[in-house]
Amino acid sequence: MEDGASTGGTGARPLSLTVSAHSPEPGLYLVATPIGAARDITLRALDVLNTADVLAAEDTRNLRHLMDIHGIPVRGRRIIAYHDHNADRQRPAILGALEQGRSVAYASDAGTPLVADPGYRLARDAAEAGFAVRALPGPSAALAALSVAGLPSDRFMFVGFPPAAAGARRKWIESWRQVDATIIAFESPRRVKQLLDNLCEIEANRSTVICRELTKKFEEVMRGTATELAQRIPEEGLRGEVVVLFGRPEPVVADEASLRKALDGLLGTLPVKEAAAEIASRFGLPRREVYALALEMRKERE
Predict the structure, then answer these.
(1) What sequence ranges are listed for the domain RsmI HTH (predicted)?
(2) Number of structural domains found in the chain
(3) CB 68 within 8 A of CB 41
(4) Quick check: is 278 in a domain?
(5) Whole domain around residue 230: which residue ranges?
(6) Which one of 7, 61, 104, 259 is most buried, counting C-beta atoms within 10 A?
């Protein structure tokens, strides 16, 4: 999800590193690459990028740049572009290389492969075909954000990118809002404010952390409630790569006054059945009970 790696500082003396010349065994190698600072790559990742028979990448330019930084030559090896728009066309070529007994190194745009990138089907199909699939652990924007957020980390849930459309985004929020875990999401920097505004409609005091440009020069971590952070973000949004985290939901008191207040905000815009279903889900109550109260409120209005 992140931009290409940077060199991570100026004036630093280069280290003397030994890169292995032994070819890896046949199989698919999922190579985690830096989310910002190029020096965050592991020695094992450099070994495999140096010796794999075939290279594949979500963005071949980023991979070439990373290899150039670390002095790893391509040596005429094939580099296959594998991304959302060509995955179905390119997957047979990668599986064909595995069938020939070759080693294939796949790198996402930045971070850990298969976390919000198109590598899922590739790994699944390779495993189902009986080929070895190996993970080369390393940088991960989601875990880096969780590390610095200051939110509970004993249980967390990664929910990917929210939908762009407002209505779909609200439903997406409802799908995880009551989960008893820290929520981790990726978001476009231009839409972060809209995401927080949507959350504020139903849970304005939710503990929220925004991590921007992790491991890069202008790294920033913003902490507060959803309302506080929404007020700090300009209308045009933020710049750079963004990870948003939400703390666990606050306990909801399901008394009649709370139910009536919540229903009152929806009955003017939604049919009774849909309003009751949403509030029942929000408070963790049987739909039948909330529906009965919603009908009573509608009759009172009439």
Answers:
(1) 254-298
(2) 3
(3) no
(4) yes
(5) 152-246
(6) 104
